Amino acid sequence: MSFSRKSIFILMAFAILVASCGGENPTESAPYVDAILTAAVGTFAASVFQTQTALAPLATQTSSPTANPTASPFTIPTLGSSPTQPFVFIPVLGTPSLSPTPTGTLKTPTPNPSTLAFGCNNLLLIRDETIPAGTTLKPNESFTKIWKVENNGTCNWVFQYRLVLFGGELMEGDPSGLGKVIEPGKWTQLSLGLVAPKQPGTYIGYWRFGDQSGNMFGSTLAVSIVVAAPTNTPQPTKTLTAVPPTLTPSETPVPTNTEIPTDTPVPVP
Predict the structure, then answer these.
(1) Does residue 103 belong to any structural domain of this protein?
(2) Considering the entire predicted model, what is its pTM?
């Protein structure tokens, strides 16, 4: 680059010197000087372009970057714009979620039999043997309620264990002692004599088993009955029938004995 510029300057200085030292005919030397200046300028321009081309780095082909698609978290709705109405952005608000309301019939939780124990004693109800719930009885009707139960505790039921009224109607119940020994894991039947109340209605009594000290344990044993209202049977109505009078026949006079006169002569044949 510096060498080319020096050459151009030398040529230009040489041209100026030649022009100044020429003869008396300036018109003849002017074209010659112009030609020299033109050649010098062209040489200078060519040297400049060649130098810039040499210094410029070679172009390398590079792959065009590929735009990675980005997932949009949500889509914003757009409204068509009109010449008279400006664009309006309406944000989309989420609908607040409400807690679901439970429907249907809710089940009554059943207590865990293991939590009904008292000490080492416990009782599990297996089933009702007699008088299922809702049995209809007559007023003052006697009946016997029997439950099948299991000793699911860890100690024996002994002779003085008995039923104890827990709540509801007594219905003249008078439980007696167990009178036997029931070992753990064994089952037995508990019976109770009762009498239906006099008044119509629904009656429920709740009983539990207890030890000799009256400490209750185990499942609740229920008695549920319905006393029906007495039905009055209508008595048949008596119909009075007119009886015709009975005619009594008149008495016929009985002829009396007529005395035959003794002095009447008897005709002789």
Answers:
(1) no
(2) 0.47
Same domain, 124 and 211: yes
Domain with residue 125: its CATH number is: 2.60.40.10
Gap between the Cα atoms of 172 and 38, Å rounded: 145
Is position 49 within any domain?
yes
Look-up: residue for tokens 């002692």?
177
Q: Give the residue numbers spanning the domain of 19.
A: 2-54
Taking residues 88-108, what's their average pLDDT?
A: 53
Rounded to 5°, angle at Cα 135 from 124 and 201: 115
Q: What is the mean pLDDT of residues 57-71?
A: 54
At 201, is the secondary structure helix, strand, or coil? strand
What percent of the chain shows pLDDT beyond 70?
Answer: 46
Spatial CB neighbours of 151, under 8 Å, sequence gap ≥ 6: 122, 123, 157, 182, 183, 184, 185, 186, 187, 188
Q: Residue 29: inside a domain, yes or no? A: yes
